[in-house]
Design a protein that fits this description.
The chain has eleven helices and no strands. It is mostly helical and 200 residues long. It has one domain.
Length: 200
């Protein structure tokens, strides 16, 4: 087996595990796990520290998906190897070894993965659709779940390899599980709204 494949899996998980939101909030004297939703992702950092720090967190979380998958696409010969590497940064973000396996929701890191696999043109379309849905619904978790649910359909009805379709199913399951509390609140009508104009 290609040793670089195993190295990328390990790197992808460990890099994905870096809790940028937690570290940034700590540097600002805040434990993000005790503020707002308790999530370490960019949305909660925006609520706690403002859009500047939230945006930085989001960008760093996206890079956790971009860098390992870019290396996988560049150096690995098989689609199934690339797809397998691609899931590990998301696993690292949701189950970070540095925070006792209690991390974020995985959306930004998955977005980084998709940016590499789909290309910037398709990714731009998805971002615009995501922004439109968010502007209409003003519920971040629901917007994210709807977009993730659409990924298997996108990969199934396009010319992408089967391995990427299976990856999209895995991302849907993982991210839905990470949003289980949000889903409960959505069912009860208790999920907080994302103040689009004020935040952006």
């Amino acid at each position: 087996m290609n040793p670089f494949f195993l190295l990328l899996i390990i790197f992808g998980y460990l890099f994905g595990s870096i809790p940028f939101g937690y570290l940034i909030s700590k540097l600002n004297g805040v434990d993000i796990r005790k503020v707002g939703s308790g999530n370490i992702g960019g949305t909660n950092v925006i609520r706690a520290l403002g859009k500047k720090w939230g945006l930085l967190t989001g960008i760093l979380d996206v890079l956790k998906g971009v860098i390992p998958v870019f290396l996988a696409v560049k150096f690995l010969p098989f689609d199934w190897q690339i797809a397998l590497v691609a899931i590990f940064p998301v696993l690292g973000h949701i189950f970070p070894i540095w925070l006792n396996f209690k991390g974020g929701k995985g959306v930004a890191t998955a977005a980084g993965v998709l940016f590499v696999l789909l290309g910037w043109q398709n990714s731009l379309i998805l971002i615009l659709v995501w922004l439109l849905i968010l502007a209409i619904l003003q519920i971040m978790s629901l917007t994210n779940l709807l977009l993730v649910a659409s990924l298997p359909l996108i990969f199934w009805f396009t010319s992408f390899p089967l391995a990427y379709f299976i990856l999209s199913l895995a991302l849907f399951v993982l991210i839905s599980w990470a949003h289980r509390e949000n889903i409960r609140r959505l069912k009860k009508g208790e999920e907080s709204k994302f103040k689009f104009k004020k935040t952006l």
